[in-house]
Specification:
This protein has a single domain, classed as Aldolase class I (TIM Barrel), CATH 3.20.20.70. 48% of the residues lie in helices and 12% in strands. It has 12 helices and 8 strands. Strands 7-6-5-4-3-2-1-8 form an 8-stranded parallel beta sheet. Helix 4 packs parallel to helix 6 and helix 9 runs antiparallel to helix 10. The longest helix is centred in the C-terminal third of the chain and has 18 residues. It starts with 6 loop residues before the first strand and ends with a helix.
């Protein structure tokens, strides 16, 4: 049960091969995994929002989790995305991930249904009780339409000991601060926004689940480590240097911009599944410009 969650975790994209059928490109996926490990990430998160989990079939979801575990071979942590707006489905996905060998599961706040806080409490407690692996809660109200209140999160963690962390993607540093203040070391707070990693670590977060690290794993790892080590000036320089890249990754709905960026480096095809659409030309230019600016700054 003890799992030290700290550092940079990559919210993995799911590479697809072509516009017509969009089959998973396993060669690109394997290459992406190896790049993350070589870059020094603490872990990887397959089948999250960045992995386009809503458009993966159940079979594909299982294949992505299983392949991640088998390729990683314990070199980094695997936190499998297993969320759903159906409690029954979230339980099934979480149990599969646990059987497959994932180190932990990440369960997003149920989307579309708009459950009450009591409904959220029951959902997460039921999922947590169904597995023995640690569970990370993912709170992203901009996408789910519902916000998990800090009081509800504390109640969940009190009832379910294997709820060990929360990915806070509310964009609210004060929220992260409040969780750290009230819950201390009982749970780990992770930034769900690359652009807020430094300020969130400053108030007690222990790392980030990153989109940018798909493309720049070593650079993101370095910035996160500097922030955790407390070297304020160097951490600030590293964070601000990456900030234009972080911001470019969300000009349009993720993961379209990061997939465009990966395609620019010939690491995977620029393919997303409908209803997402590839980036506009204006966004591609902005992404390319941000990457060029960052590269110049590092030379």
């Amino acid at each position: 049960m003890v799992l030290r969650i700290q550092g940079t975790y990559t919210a993995l994209v799911t590479p697809f091969r072509d516009e017509a059928e969009q089959p998973i490109d396993w060669d690109a996926f394997d290459g992406l995994l190896e790049a993350q490990i070589a870059g020094g990430v603490s872990g990887v998160v397959p089948c999250g929002t960045t992995g386009e989990s809503p458009t993966l079939s159940h079979e594909e979801h299982a294949q992505v989790v299983e392949r991640t575990v088998s390729r990683v071979k314990g070199r980094v942590q695997v936190i499998a995305g297993t969320g759903s707006n159906s409690t029954r489905e979230a339980i099934a996905l979480s149990q599969h991930a646990a059987r497959a060998g994932a180190d932990a599961v990440m369960v997003v706040v149920p989307y579309y249904n708009r459950p009450t806080q009591e409904g959220l409490y029951r959902h997460f407690v039921e999922v947590a009780k169904s597995v023995r692996v640690p569970l990370v809660i993912y709170n992203i109200p901009a996408r789910t339409g519902q916000d998990l209140a800090p009081e509800t999160f504390a109640r969940i963690a009190e009832t379910a000991p294997n709820v060990v962390a929360i990915k806070e993607a509310t964009g609210n540093v004060l929220r992260a601060q409040k969780i750290v203040q009230t819950m201390g070391s009982r749970v780990t707070v992770l930034s769900g926004d690359d652009a807020l990693t430094l300020p969130m670590i400053a108030v007690g977060a222990k790392g980030v689940i990153s989109v940018t690290s798909n493309l720049l794993p070593a650079e993101t790892v370095r910035a996160t480590r500097l922030a955790l080590d407390g070297g304020a000036e160097e951490a600030r320089r590293a964070h601000l240097a990456l900030l234009p890249v972080h911001e470019a990754m969300f000009i349009e709905a993720s993961p379209a911009p990061i997939k465009a960026a990966l395609a620019m480096r010939r690491l995977s095809a620029d393919v997303v599944r409908p209803p997402l659409a590839p980036c506009t030309e204006a966004t591609r230019k902005a992404v390319a410009g941000a990457l060029e600016t960052y590269a110049r700054g590092q030379s």
